Structure formats: structure tokens, C-alpha cells
Amino acid sequence: MTRTERLDKLKTKLLDRRKELRVKITGDLGSTDPNQQGDEGDAATYNASSDLNTRLASMESDELRQIELALNKFRDGRYGICEMSGKSIPIARLEALPFTRLSVECQRVQEESSHADHGYNADWEFAVTQESRFQERDLTISDLRMED
Q1: CA–CA distance, 140 with 53 (Å, rounded to integer)
Q2: Which of 69, 109, 115, 148 has the fewest other C-beta atoms within 10 Å?
Q3: Which has the closest alpha carbon to 34: 47, 23, 21, 25?
Q4: Under 8 Å CB-to-CB from 94, ≥6 apart: which residues?
Q5: Is the full-model pTM beyond 0.70?
Q6: Which of 50, 67, 58 is nearest to 24 (CA)?
Q7: Max Cα distance, the chain (Å)
Q8: Residue 5 class from Cβ within 10 Å (0-12 exposed, 13-18 middle, 19+ buried)?
């Protein structure tokens, strides 16, 4: 199968997933009514379910946005081209993640630079040493008294 044929299959896959996500997002996110009578346990269950549904909807909206970007690239003839290097993204990567915008190498560079920018280069040996200094111990009343 040629690259063009494989890309056509990916486009169909993206269109199908977009349709599926649109139905999910516009559909009813929760079947429970917060005004139904129930005890505190029911209210807690509703709140936890609502929280989960909100997070899932957010992830699905983000995926839909990325799919829309990929479909726009198809229209512009730029699909499958790495945004950072300008080189073709291998078809295997596109098949694994059809809305990817970067090659594996460029994705790695971007993640490493993002982590460096946000201070994620943690010194784990120091962290473990510090954590071991805070071993659990029993507190006494005098430990809790505020100094005058």
C-alpha cells in the first residue's frame, strides 16, 4: 500500500473519530439529576461522576481540536509534515497517533525543552535524602504549642 493510500485511510479514520467525538460532546454528559432526592452518599456519587464527566469532556474536546487541526492540514496539503523540522513524519507514527504534529525526534526535543523551562529537571537523589529526614514520629502536646 502506498503512502498516499495509507494517508487516505488516516483521513477517513480522523473523520470517523471527529464524528464520534462530536456526538459524545454534544450529547448528555450525565444521566443523573443533581436535584434528585437522596442522601449524602448519592450527592457525593453525583459530584464524583460529574467531575469525571467534566474531565473526560475536556480531554475529548482537546482531541477534537487536534483532529480539526489535522483535517485542516489535509485540506492545505500539509498533513504528515513535521511542524518543527519540515520533514515527512513516518507513516507508522501517523498511524499510531493520526493527529500528531511532530516527528518523534522533534517531539522529544520539545518535551525536553518544555521540562527545562518549567524546572522539571529534579534532583531525585536530593529529594529522597530530604524525604528520609522527615520520618514519621509521634507528636506530643509540647510539639503543638505555639511559642509566646
Answers
A1: 44
A2: 148
A3: 47
A4: 6, 7, 10, 80, 100
A5: no
A6: 58
A7: 80
A8: exposed
Domains and CATH numbers, the chain: 3-102 (1.20.120.910)
| Cα(95)–Cα(13) distance, integer angstroms | 10
Whether 65 and 18 have beta carbons less than 8 Å apart is answered as: no
Cα–Cα distance for residue pair 64/33, rounded to 1 Å? 27
Q: What residue type is 103 in one-letter code?
A: S
Residues 134-141: contacts with CB within 8 Å, 24+ apart? none
Q: 87 vs 10, 103, 119, CA distance in Å? A: 18, 8, 30
pLDDT in tens, 81-138: 999 999 999 999 999 999 999 999 999 999 888 766 555 555 556 555 555 555 555 5
**Cα 15-20-26 angle, rounded to 5 deg:** 120
Q: Scanning the structure block, which residue is given the C-alpha cell 503543638?
A: 144
Instruction: Say if CB 18 and CB 60 are below 8 A apart.
Output: no
Q: Which three cell numbers stand for residue 87?
A: 520533514
Rounded Cα distance between 53 and 78, Å, is: 34
Q: Which letter does DSSP use for residue 88 in this model?
A: B
